[in-house]
Amino acid sequence: MVISYRCLLLIFMEFMQINHAVICNIEDFQISCLRETCTDQIAFIKDNCPLELQKNYNCRGNNLTNVSEIERNVAYCSLDISRNWFEILHAGTFLQWTNLVALDLSNSHYLEVIDPDAFKGLQNLRYLNLKQSLTYKTFNRYQVPEAFRHLPELIILDITKNNIESYELIEKTVRHTRKLKYLALEGCPSCTFGPEFATLKQLIALDQTVEEEWCYCFIEILSDNYFQNLQFLKFLYLSDCRIKTISPQAFVPLSQIELLDLSYNYNLTFDRAMIGLQGLRNATSLRTLKLNFLHPLLQGHSVTIKKEHITFLSNLNVEELHLEGNKLDVFEYGVLSALPDTIKTVNLRHNRLAIDNYLDEFFDSNRTLKHLKVLDISYQNSAIGSYSPNKLSEKKKKLKRRDTMFTFLVKLFKTFVAEVALPPRLENITCLNMGWNFLVPEINVSPSNSIKNLDFSVNGLHTWIGPVNGLNQLENLSLANNFCNNISDVFFSTFKGLKRLSIQGNLLGVVLERDSDGIIFSSLKSLQYLDISSNQISKLPPRIFQHMVSLEELIISYNMLSKFEIDVLTMTKLTNIDMSYNKIETLPNSLTHHMDRIAKNNHVVINLSGNPISCTCENIEFLRWMMETNVQLKYDSVCSHQTKMDTAEKLRSLEKECTSKVGLIAGCIAFIVLAFAVIFGGIIYRYKWHLRYLYYSARNSVGIRHHGEDYTELYQYDSFISYAEEDKPFVYNGILPEIEEKFGLRLCIADRDFTPGVSVPENIIRAISSSRRAIFVLSHSFLDSYWCKYELNMVRIEAEKKNRKFVIVVMYEYVSNDELPLDIMEVIRSQTYIDYPDDEMAREAFWRRLKETID
User: Fold this and answer.
1) Is the N or the C terminus of the chain less surrounded, counting Cβ atoms within 10 Å?
2) What digits encode the pLDDT tens for the residues 788-827?
3) Where does the sequence pass through the membrane (predicted)?
4) Residue 7 domain flag
5) pLDDT greater than 90 at residue 6
6) Residue 254 placed within a domain
């Protein structure tokens, strides 16, 4: 007798199964399910499982070929044997699993035979997942429908991703599962729900969505009789089903429907969807309607929502309306008023909304959307901009191009205060990535509003002026990633009840460093969470957060802080500080002691990851604190390259190294001397130009007093000319002939008018003090000249000390902003500058303007 290799292998495997049963993982009770309705059913299943059995026996992906390989007599409620290689489910396969309420057989790619008694013993089973497990051959066997007669309590069945071409066998299968509530079943072009489905009176959820490239829902046409045997449905998911047409009567049988999802049917289009949805006009139970992305992504024109589109909604009680990604441009006037008052959530993300008169209707809180709570209009292809119904409705007709809108708004808000009325129950507004690029002016919001959450992140709101009045219930505000570099002292002054503030990803380093008295955040006494990460902050004043007595979490990560100097003594509730990825080497005792006090009764976390913790004698106290504190510390390493495991050993080594008294005394003396030297040097460096100016001014006794711009006193020169040696031809061949010879003005030129035998600095001071104006010939050579920079700084100090505005900058050569030092940038921003033209025809006007500026 010839025994095949396959038979020998099967005999060997059977022997191995008898002697070596597979032991799987035991984990908490869990069943995967995407839809919220299915999740609700899973909660019900768990509640019907005895507490002592609420565990999941997980044999997922163990390369099993037979269920008998699994350890026997395991009493748990859930069994996961997905992603294995079962070919046959024999009779009585699950007789030892009588307590099962959930069975996952998904992704059993080679399952060809299911015996009619395979599920015998599973009389308590509520959940069965056969996703991607049944081949066409399997489902065309009579055994599959008969096997389900052993599952009388089944309420969730998932048989998607099985390339089903007809519902005939499905109908024979579900006739045994009268308690079925949730059915996941892919759609196909010629499939219909037969009379047996009408007997499933508890079937409330049908999910025909399949999220796979090779296996998908393909319905194309929803005919008049498609749902005639599914009249008990409450939740219907038809997203991404390639639907092109919906009959006006298709949804008529669904009088009990509560949720309908038609999203991602890209060829349906908004207009055809609205025609098909007319069948819902009597579906008074409908609460959620999802109509996202009904157009091809890269084709089609903008869509206007008309009143005729939404007539079917007028008598319904819809609470959620999702219209994301439909290329919506405007709403016809009257549409918003026609929407049912029951609407609480509106999602209009990824559209093209533009300013139009429908905004007047939206802001009329007495007529529209009285119960609206959530509004999301993020990611609009065209910016909406700020809106004032009193002012913009009169001005908008004058806007001929969209790129002029922002300029107009900025000018408008410099003159007017924006007045805004909102739906009375609106709590959440989200406006992410709108393309806005303007300042936030003072805004008065109608005090009858209920706004709690505002998210205007990822825009270009570069200046926050405010205040924003009327948002008395605001709790969460996000202005992250707006490229903002300026906040007024009063912008946050009206947000008394604010609890969470996210302003990360801006450019607030300079403005926060200047707020030494903590005025900007002084009104935020209720704030619990503050995120100012990624703001290019190099220093924060100690008192900047002194008024935040309720702060619990502070995020200052991804900045350039080298020291933590913030006074935290008033923050008695602070339990989480994230200062990761800065340049911090140590923390002050005031902070560590304060956090230790809080840690006695609370869980406290400080994140120091990405900071170069210093290992020196001066820092030994902080290192010791790191080892002893009850505060949970997060850090990568200390001493630059040491690991966490080396920290304790390094500390012991440092303690020995730093105990020498001589070394300690010498170190203290050296430290004191160095500190004084650094401080004195810093003062000298900080005021070096002032000191030079005072020194040479004292030596220079010109005896002329200046009083601002009062030129009743006589000056020896009309203007002092500062220029680089390389630009001398321009001065002698251009400025002197045109200004001095032609217009008769007296100029001070270093090469000609400086007094011999007197030091250059003293000559410069004399020339500046004796001139009504100072002209700087700006060029690349000017930037490279030491004496030109010297003259510039002396003029700046002269202007500051004597309150004179007498600087004129001639842009002789084009110099980009990146090449200009900060001091020159400051002069250009605050003083007069004139561009020297390349065109000879324009130079006569240039000389005339320069002469008038000097005068």
Assistant:
1) N
2) 888 888 887 777 777 777 788 888 888 887 787 777 777 7
3) 662-685
4) no
5) no
6) no
CB 358 within 8 A of CB 335: yes
> What's the half-sphere exposure (Cβ side, CA atoms, 13 Å) at 435?
16
What's the confidence (pLDDT) of residue 293? Answer: 92
The reply to whether 365 falls in a domain is: yes
For 232-267, write each residue's pLDDT tens digit. 999 999 999 999 999 999 999 999 999 999 999 999
Residue 227 lies in a domain: no
Q: Identify any residues that bridge with 261 across adjacent strands, giving them in sequence order.
A: 237, 290
* 613 DSSP 8-state letter: B
> Burial, 710: exposed, middle or buried (Cβ in 10 Å; 0-12, 13-18, 19+)?
exposed
d(CA 736, CA 728): 11
- For the chain, the first-to-last Cα distance in angstroms comes to 121
Per the listing, tokens 């605050």 go with 830
H/E run at residue 666: helix 661-686
Q: Is 738 helix (H, G, I), strand (E, B) or coil?
A: helix
The CATH number for 386's domain is: 3.80.10
- C-beta of residue 229 within 8 angstroms of C-beta of residue 178: no
Lowest-confidence segment of 193-207, 243-257, 332-346, 700-714 by average pLDDT: 700-714
pTM > 0.85: yes or no: no
Q: Dump pLDDT digits (tens) for 266-303.
A: 999 888 999 999 999 889 999 999 999 998 877 777 88
CA separation for the pair 720, 768 (Å, rounded)? 6
Looking at residue 415, its amino acid is: T
Residues of the chain above pLDDT 90, percent: 36
CATH number of the structural domain spanning residue 729: 3.40.50.10140
Task: State the residue range of the domain holding 311.
Answer: 301-391+404-453
How far apart, in whole angstroms, are the C-alpha atoms of residue 731 and residue 781? Answer: 14
Distances (CA, A) of 421 to 411, 414, 424, 447, 472: 21, 20, 9, 8, 14
